[in-house]
Amino acid sequence: MKLLSSCIIAISMYSRLPMPQIRWSREGMKHSMCFFPLVGLIQGLLLALWLWLAREVLGLSAAMTALWGTALPVLVTGGIHLDGFLDTMDGICSFGDREKKLAILKDPHLGAFAVIYGMVYILLYAGVFYEFTVRTAGKYDLLPVLFMTMERGLSGLSVLLFPSAKKDGLAVAFAEAAEKRTDRLGMTAWLLAVPAAAGLLGGSWWLKAALVFLILLAALFGWFYRWSLKHFGGITGDLAGFYLQAGELVCLSASVALLALRR
Is residue 2 part of a domain? Predict the structure, then answer.
């Protein structure tokens, strides 16, 4: 029952998918982070379903398919991670000291840099997704499932491993409620399970693709650790969202490169 509560809390917090209403408690949140990658798996499956519907049922153009595909992750998550990306860009572009940057992260108002870099991000994502749409041809629609799951595993690990930049906030609440050793093992299990499942179900090429995604996400994770400590003194929920959005764009771009090399 505790694990079910943790699963419901994770999906309710990090998505807009309909879930039963339960009372949030510290005990129920204990293993919520372990189910965070499940949200990415579901999001990737929904994205694959959209690609199939757009191509086989609706007969949409690649451009329209890509535009809706760009919007789908935001609709599934409610924009919680994109919000973190926008707040982070406002903070880092202020060029203020650590306290000022953290204050900007907490400020609910949207700054000019959030708008500017938010537009740049969406344009880049839509452009890369268009290239992915025209290259997948229905054979590789499930590629986003791999990196959307793993990126959440590493984003969750950042909350569990990095020092907290603030004394309160969403990241602190989940980190304090977590049974850290068990949850770290759970996140690591997700990171190992995805390439293993890709290899068993899809073959050697899918295993290689999963390993490419994992290497890229791990390299980004290492950079992110040093960068977040330097500029913010640790991790926050907004910064974890920034890492997730950055990782998603990097891996989607890598998907296009992998498909181009496969031809």
Answer: no
Residue 65's domain comprises 43-262
Element (H, E) at 101: helix 98-106
User: What is the Cα 160 distance to its own chain's centre?
Assistant: 16
Q: Are 210 and 144 in contact (CB under 8 A)?
A: no
Query: Which residues 6+ apart lie within 8 Å of 51 measured at CB?
Result: 65, 69, 133, 136, 138, 141
Average pLDDT along the chain, 263 residues, taken 10 residues at a time: 79 87 71 87 96 94 95 93 94 89 87 94 97 90 96 91 78 64 88 96 95 97 96 92 96 96 78
Q: Is the pTM of this model over 0.90?
A: yes
Tokens of 43: 């999001």
Domains: count for the chain: 1
Which residues face 158 on adjacent strands? none
How many C-beta neighbours within 10 Å does residue 178 have? 23
DSSP result, 155-202: HHHHHHHSPBSSSSSHHHHHHHHS-HHHHHHHHHHHHHHHHHHHHHHH
179 within a domain of the structure (yes/no): yes
Sequence-distant contacts of 8-11: CB under 8 A, at least 24 apart: 10/34, 10/35, 10/36, 10/38, 10/39, 11/35, 11/38, 11/39, 11/42
